[in-house]
Automatic annotation (TrEMBL):
Species assigned in the record: Candidatus Blochmannia vicinus (nom. nud.)
UniProt keyword Iron-sulfur present: yes
Taxonomic lineage from the root: Bacteria, Pseudomonadati, Pseudomonadota, Gammaproteobacteria, Enterobacterales
This protein's name: NADH-quinone oxidoreductase subunit F
InterPro entries (UniProt xref): NADH-UbQ_OxRdtase_51kDa_CS (IPR001949), NADH-UbQ_OxRdtase_suF (IPR011537), Nuo51_FMN-bd (IPR011538), Nuo51_FMN-bd_sf (IPR037225), Nuop51_4Fe4S-bd (IPR019575), Nuop51_4Fe4S-bd_sf (IPR037207)
Keyword Translocase: yes
Single GO MF annotation: oxidoreductase activity
Length: 443
């Protein structure tokens, strides 16, 4: 059985500094564990271009769910040389149901995030950075504010960082509690004090972002990978992942649901879902069996037991018919009715729609209405076919942003694997029709 504390710097660049008592690692202890050495090396010994190239060569992908290559995003920032003002924004608006990895990092290692942001800001020519934090993460806000005060006291915020010409300011901003703020342009609008709706792309934030200036938006876990890459290099980072995976480094992955040991672990890309479920989560609780699972949060397609041996990474999970997403898997047990579960998810996504485009604003409530009827066994013939049609109408390229396409992924996959449970929702109609026919025949 793997122990979360049997960690080392070579194989667990994110978690090896964590304390056994689960308390945060504050500045002095973080420095004793090589904290801010990577930042010192980057700012005093490397040029911004060298850092961007290093991150590009490492193969680091965004850890927020989309998996976009970080080096490409950083390179796009440097292609716009028309403005001297530019910004870095950390996306800490972690509202994906079933996902809590960023909260875990910020509560236990707030300085790892700050060091990653310090390095990224220097590499991108940014002098002012923001952390956009989910409103409900109040304890995280307290910890981050303390960590920001600590590094300010030693001169890592302000003028001439490490006696260089690099100036750096960092601000914490808490959102108002909207799921759509996880989309980077909606986040930027919210940070500006505007309505949190997505923007047209292009132009991309790397060219026209916060207050019209070039802006890079990176996820918490993504930024936390930067210090390790700077300190140990590309070869080390690529070799951490399993050989059966094309992705580099480690990933915070986990399992929640009716499992004996729900949690989050830092594992190499390519670890199979079965390994995580059986070796780390210790299997399903007594009396429960696995019916389905979602690889990376509530907006990813359901997979079945037949997919447990698929390596957990972006390409392999996509090939199996789902998305890797955040890597935080959700186990669905045999007692769960899939219609009820999907109805619950679609209610959440419907409520969290920003209402900007018609397919999402009107389509998701329509889906919820149909699912409620099926859940209550009041469905009518054609309802399931209508759900299929709505899945196509709200699919990729049909809506303003990716909210609706993500929202219908669990519905599409539930219809694919558990269609019989949806069909049973039309039982009353057929029963009434049968009774009517019998009455007619009798009379």
């Amino acid at each position: 059985m793997s122990n979360i504390y049997n960690l080392n710097v070579e194989n667990n660049p994110l978690m090896w500094r964590m304390r056994r008592d689960k308390k945060p690692v504050w500045l002095r202890e973080y420095q004793d564990k090589n904290g801010y050495k990577a930042a010192h090396k980057a700012i005093t010994c490397m040029s911004p271009k060298e850092i961007v190239e290093l991150v590009s060569n490492s193969g680091l992908r965004g850890r927020g769910g989309g998996g976009f290559f970080t080096g490409i995003k950083w390179s796009m920032m440097w292609k716009n040389k028309l403005s001297c003002s530019r910004y870095l924004v950390c996306n800490a608006d972690e509202m994906e149901p079933g996902t809590y990895k960023d909260r875990f990092l910020m509560e236990r290692l707030p300085h790892l995030l700050l060091e990653g942001m310090l390095i990224a800001s220097y590499a991108l020519g940014v002098s002012r950075a923001y952390i956009f934090l989910r409103y409900e993460y109040m304890l995280v806000a307290e910890y981050l504010n303390r960590a920001i005060s600590e590094i300010k006291s030693i001169g890592l915020i302000g003028k001439n960082i490490f006696n260089s010409e690099f100036d750096f300011e960092l601000f914490l901003h808490t959102g108002a509690g909207r799921y759509i703020c996880g989309e980077e342009t909606a986040l930027i609008n919210a940070l500006e004090g505007r309505r949190a709706v997505p923007r047209f792309k292009p132009p991309f934030p790397s060219h026209v972002g916060l207050w019209g200036k070039p802006t890079c938006v990176n996820n918490v876990e993504t930024l936390c990978n930067i210090p390790g890459i700077i300190e140990h290099g590309v070869t080390w980072y690529k070799n951490i992942s399993a050989k059966k995976s094309n992705d580099s480094g480690t990933k915070l992955m986990g399992f929640s649901g009716k499992v004996k040991n729900p949690g989050v672990w830092e594992l190499p890309f390519g670890t199979t879902a079965r390994e995580i479920l059986e070796d780390y989560a210790q299997g399903m609780c007594t009396g429960f069996t696995l019916k389905a699972w979602q690889p990376g949060g509530a907006s990813t397609d359901f997979l079945t037991q037949d997919h447990l041996d698929v390596p957990m990474d972006f390409e392999n999970i996509a090939a199996s018919g789902s998305r890797f997403g955040t890597g935080m898997a959700i186990a669905i047990d045999n007692t769960v009715n899939m219609v009820s579960l999907v109805r619950n998810l679609e209610e959440f996504f419907s409520r969290e729609s920003c209402g900007w485009c018609t397919p999402c604003r009107d389509g998701l409530p329509w889906i919820v209405k149909l699912l409620i009827s099926l859940e209550n066994k009041d469905g009518r013939p054609g309802d399931i076919e209508l759900l299929d049609k709505l899945c196509r109408t709200l699919g990729p390229g049909r809506t303003f942003c990716a909210h609706a396409p993500g929202a219908i992924e669990p519905l599409k996959s539930a219809l694919r694997y558990f269609r019989n449970e949806f069909e049973s929702g039309i039982y009353k109609f057929y029963q009434q029709e049968t009774n009517y026919i019998r009455c007619v025949q009798i009379h």
